[in-house]
Amino acid sequence: MTDTYAHGDSRLIYTETNLPGPSEDNDEYKELMKTFNSRLTDYCTCVGLCTYPTCKCLEKSDGPNYHMYMDHGEPKLLLNSNKNINLVIECNNECYCLTTNCGNRLVQIGPVNGLVVKTCEIDLKGLGLFTSFYIRKGTFICEYAGELLTKSQAVTRNKINQLKGGMNYVFCLNEHCNGTVVQTFVDPGHFGNIGRYINHSCEPNCHIVPVRHDSPIPKLAIFARCDIEPDKEITFNYGSYKDDNVEPTESNVNRKKCLCRSKNCAGYMPYDTY
Ligand SMILES: C[S@@+](CC[C@H](N)C(=O)[O-])C[C@H]1O[C@@H](n2cnc3c(N)ncnc32)[C@H](O)[C@@H]1O
């Protein structure tokens, strides 16, 4: 992966991709580490460009994940807009195809260029992530990477953050699969990448797509869901991509006020219901 970004804050440690959270001597942690350290066993035997349905990785993805376009004479990949985003499996180290141009490797290559961290116009939002370049719909922005936590660790950290009343970086990805929900918890609060600076919006220009290429644990990959002009803030909806914001009720009065200023702002940040 090529990731040249860094934190301006020396108290934070930059990690390009997820790393295990603090070790615990319990079954929940052991189970998480077992999955984290296991590898996807399928690989393709394509030579050169991977095409659907011959490529095993694309077959497992239920169709091509990305399409190519020329950007100032350079080939770039964009997420297919008709793609089932629950199933994005990139080629991996075991695959026979070429790492540089198989057409099914994007998230593993690293974030887009031109991302800038700066203070938001609305002070209370803190820092935000902005783009200095024009970004096309379907562009991979960056991962939301940090410590991979068990559910108990995530709940504890979330409670502590709520009590402190400061920023909360713990994100829960819910994947709905055959009637069950598989949850992935990532906290870039202390160890994280550039994605930790992305703020929430009720009308976001990006969304999170679970992408797998090495371990069965998905990368929380942030993609542009529309074209984005230079100097715009990068945002995604902190609610799961399946569950939209819910109206505030008595049970969620503790939710933070949302300052996204979008026309359809729900007024509150999505509630962490895990
Ligand atoms: C993942 S961090 C985003 C980066 C953060 N703004 C910073 O300065 O590092 C999430 C935190 O940012 C703030 N935040 C993000 N989006 C917001 C929004 N739309 N309205 C108000 N606060 C927001 C909240 O405090 C939230 O807990």
From TrEMBL:
<feature type="domain" description="SET">
    <location>
        <begin position="113"/>
        <end position="239"/>
    </location>
</feature>
<dbReference type="GO" id="GO:0008170">
    <property type="term" value="F:N-methyltransferase activity"/>
</dbReference>
<dbReference type="GO" id="GO:0008270">
    <property type="term" value="F:zinc ion binding"/>
</dbReference>
<dbReference type="Pfam" id="PF05033">
    <property type="entry name" value="Pre-SET"/>
</dbReference>
<feature type="domain" description="Post-SET">
    <location>
        <begin position="254"/>
        <end position="270"/>
    </location>
</feature>
<keyword id="KW-0489">Methyltransferase</keyword>
<keyword id="KW-0949">S-adenosyl-L-methionine</keyword>
<dbReference type="GO" id="GO:0008757">
    <property type="term" value="F:S-adenosylmethionine-dependent methyltransferase activity"/>
</dbReference>
<dbReference type="GO" id="GO:0005694">
    <property type="term" value="C:chromosome"/>
</dbReference>
<protein>
    <recommendedName>
        <fullName>Histone-lysine N-methyltransferase set-23</fullName>
    </recommendedName>
</protein>
<keyword id="KW-0479">Metal-binding</keyword>
<dbReference type="InterPro" id="IPR007728">
    <property type="entry name" value="Pre-SET_dom"/>
</dbReference>
<dbReference type="InterPro" id="IPR003616">
    <property type="entry name" value="Post-SET_dom"/>
</dbReference>
<feature type="domain" description="Pre-SET">
    <location>
        <begin position="42"/>
        <end position="110"/>
    </location>
</feature>
<keyword id="KW-0862">Zinc</keyword>
<dbReference type="Pfam" id="PF00856">
    <property type="entry name" value="SET"/>
</dbReference>
<dbReference type="GO" id="GO:0005634">
    <property type="term" value="C:nucleus"/>
</dbReference>
<dbReference type="InterPro" id="IPR001214">
    <property type="entry name" value="SET_dom"/>
</dbReference>
<keyword id="KW-0158">Chromosome</keyword>
<dbReference type="InterPro" id="IPR046341">
    <property type="entry name" value="SET_dom_sf"/>
</dbReference>
<dbReference type="GO" id="GO:0042054">
    <property type="term" value="F:histone methyltransferase activity"/>
</dbReference>
<dbReference type="GO" id="GO:0032259">
    <property type="term" value="P:methylation"/>
</dbReference>
<dbReference type="InterPro" id="IPR050973">
    <property type="entry name" value="H3K9_Histone-Lys_N-MTase"/>
</dbReference>
<keyword id="KW-0808">Transferase</keyword>
